[in-house]
Amino acid sequence: MESALQENVLPRQGFEGLDRWMERYQQADPDAPGALIGALSPRLLRFFRSQAASREQAEDLLQETWMRIHRVRHTYRPGEPVLPWVYAIARRVRVDGYRRTRRITLHEIATDVLPEKSAQAEARNQGPMFDTLVATLPEAQREVVTMLKVGGLSLEEVARATSSTVGAVKQKAHRAYDRLRKVLQIRAEEEPTGSAQ
Description:
Elements: H1 2-6, H2 18-26, H3 32-49, H4 55-71, H5 82-106, H6 119-124, H7 130-134, H8 139-150, H9 155-161, H10 166-195
Helix pairs in contact: 2-3, 3-4, 4-5, 5-9, 8-10, 9-10
């Protein structure tokens, strides 16, 4: 589990200039939006993908997030860390997207035939990837782990982004790590029987 999670941890030093870029964005600097989008989009896309959205849904949520950030950029307080502010917006966009999808799904007709899994998708899933592991977690734990490990946020920043306390974030992270450890142990125990084929 350590190696799977460590591969996805982002270095903190990559986020140091974001606060300044956000201030420049508020002051209508034409270079600021590109710098922010370039630095944050991969992390936000990974955040949305870890929340069980398809790639297309994740990209739509990312685009909606940037449109919302543009509309509410005046609410960012200079001097405050920008990551919790951005992730709070992304989280709200995800919830709104879920609600919108749910409303649409309630009006659609279900089909009896499901598409088969492609051989290429099965070949990629040989080892437990971060996204696969995190998908086994409840939504609140998945969100916290993704913000911590993929987004590179601190406990305090995750607490601010999720409107909760640092203690609650620690508890969710601890429970998530315990659950991931158990999932990896179960998979390790099942692996010898599966490889005998």
